[in-house]
Description:
2 copies of one chain form a homodimer. Chain A has a 6-stranded mixed sheet, with helices on both faces. The termini of chain A are far apart. Chain A has helices spanning 35-41, 44-48, 83-89, 108-121, 134-146, 160-168, 180-194, 206-221, 238-252, 273-280, 306-315, 325-337, 344-358, 395-401; strands spanning 4-8, 14-16, 29-33, 79-81, 93-98, 126-130, 149-155, 172-176, 197-198, 229-233, 262-268, 319-323, 367-372, 391-392. In chain A, helix 8 (206-221) packs across helix 9 and helix 9 packs across helix 11 (306-315). The first copy, chain A, is α/β, with parallel strands linked by helices. Chain A contains 14 helices and 14 strands. The radius of gyration of chain A is 21 Å and the shape is globular. At the A-B interface, helix 5, helix 6, strand 8, helix 7 and helix 12 of A face helix 5, helix 6, strand 8, helix 7 and helix 12 of B.
Amino acid sequence: VSKCAQxxxxxxxxxxxxxxxxxxxxxxxxxxxxxxxxxHTMTREALSTRPTTMWRYHELLPVMDLRSVxxxxxxxxPLIRVPSLEKRYNLKEILIKREEQNPTGSFKSRGFSVAVxxxxxxxxxxxxxxxxxxxxxxxxxxxxxxxxDATVIVPQDCPEYIVRECVHYGASTYIIDGMIHxxxxxxxxxxxxxxxxxxxxxxxxGRAEGKKTMGLxxxxxxxxxxxxxxxxxxxxxxxxxxxxxxxxxxxxxGLISGEMPRLxxxxxxxxxxxxxxxxxxxxxxxxxxxxxVSPTGMRVPYPPDGQLIARMIQxxxxxxxxxxxxxxxxxxxxxxxxxxxxSPEGAATLAGLHKVAADSWLRSTDRVVLFNTSxxxxxxxxxxxxxxxxxxxSYKDVNGSVKK
Amino acid sequence: VSKCAQxxxxxxxxxxxxxxxxxxxxxxxxxxxxxxxxxHTMTREALSTRPTTMWRYHELLPVMDLRSVxxxxxxxxPLIRVPSLEKRYNLKEILIKREEQNPTGSFKSRGFSVAVxxxxxxxxxxxxxxxxxxxxxxxxxxxxxxxxDATVIVPQDCPEYIVRECVHYGASTYIIDGMIHxxxxxxxxxxxxxxxxxxxxxxxxGRAEGKKTMGLxxxxxxxxxxxxxxxxxxxxxxxxxxxxxxxxxxxxxGLISGEMPRLxxxxxxxxxxxxxxxxxxxxxxxxxxxxxVSPTGMRVPYPPDGQLIARMIQxxxxxxxxxxxxxxxxxxxxxxxxxxxxSPEGAATLAGLHKVAADSWLRSTDRVVLFNTSxxxxxxxxxxxxxxxxxxxSYKDVNGSVKK
Lengths: 404, 404
């Protein structure tokens, strides 16, 4: 008996589960579970005694044999309240989901735990991924743990630490003078000769399903309720797909009820195809990224299925906002002031909060969740001057440097 | 009614709980709980439904009013098996406790969550710490979240990222040309004038009690049993104190039974006062660190109460080993090969495993836990040449670079 099938979001055709992301018609395939069956075992009570990794939701993950699971301790990340922000915007609750506490320092651990488990289950020995950085290092780590060869290609302006991280985990690591889709083209060109399995965004079902656990665990951590608003940084968009799917499945299972959370997508000024599509209600167009746009996970000029992402956001009553590099930098420092290490993408959600709050888009009854997708430290720009840290010899020097 | 008192490890005098680390006699004070009272509420059943942070053990933490707790999502870190190591050494189980998944990327989050909560509970507004790095950034983060001013002093060879991190969280950050105790002297000199509360190692009870939760949760995660061996990197030594105390308290509470885990302390060649004391059975002497010894958390030439640490290790039937810088570097790469980002201190526990295994000190029935105390990324040496990562233009370049 198969655990799940796939359904096309375009032609609605149902096909047996396979490691593919696209229907013959070109539509995106989503994994479809027999929720009537899941309902019997994945109860609130059963869940309450399970281990605190994302694999507690194994009925809603497409790995058949749990002995194939490649786990490094992903998921069940903390959710932190920020009372000063709640007060400032007169909101019911503002929570930060600390995805940087995942094994590879980013939310990408989730998707690759599932994707690499699916490869391991099928004895696939070589995987490759085009990435802006964190997906590459996540593949590198999970593939290393599974004994699978990993090849990763990232833009040459990828944060240096992340490139080092890929090498550290033993991946064959390449850089290109171009964007993530250029890296994807190179992998496509070499796939046959190298025998790579391409685990790029929406190329296979594991990554989106893994990200889905962010939504599943958010609902459980909130006592089986949903937040009103989720602000999420968007690149390829499979995070949005995962979140949307999580709440849909939980509703069908009867584990939550009520409205879907309004999904808010954040991208950076200079490369924001999803924001444009959502705000203008037009089909997603390939963006021409400006030279100034930062090399973060949000810089994806042409997401594999932007249409689907935009539709999901609109369906929830959500919105999309572009924030500037300067707003992101200020938000990173603001996050630091709350004691939180936020990547540019994670900080962008705070900048997005400021924006939607200024637009009076939020309601005072809203419970808002920001996703801090990665650690600040992975993005340190070593070209920037080192901060002014006084070298002291005695207390006199310290006292002398204190601002009076 | 007071929740706890303090007891001197030297003269055994019991005094009311206070934010101090030393008895009048000079002995180290440990926190003492009324375990008969704790036994009634901190049951296995009650724990099974509590939130997955270290504050689930609040009965065994000295904060009186839980509304004072400053929490950023610390504790309940994953425990990962490494089957290839188990096979290699023919051991029952080898597990890595992934402390780098704490909020500040290191185990130091635990101690500072408690220490800063104790300050917040008393409305203390200024804290200072001498540190080798990770304690400084943890104080910086938790103090920021609590709205407390933090001052940190670290050696000038402290990893650059960690210095940046302290600044990012808003701490007044200073570097010195010296060791951690030199930084401590400067803080002592300025304490009165600046009104600092010194949260240095063993200066107050919060940090050791916070680290204790590593042991509490290890026992719970292992289904209320103990590992046979714990390998732990040692600097100031409060981690050893915390682990020792955790298992003692759990035994008294009847939550675990049997032998104490054998505690194995690891330090680096060139600065290993605890190792010398344990192996020669002599009192702890101040070490003269060699110029080559790495600027890690283990480089503490004169731990505040080394005697106590050595005694605890010996009492459990444990041991202590010094590993070389080269062995640590090799172990970091080996950890990378398992998909794990390990700091030098965390990797030192793997190097220590190799050493005690080579000495036939382990038994095939042993379940061994290594503590990976921090992320590799916090220690990247930017002076080291960037790894050789080919810039590719097309698949031809990738194929050309593949080792045949």
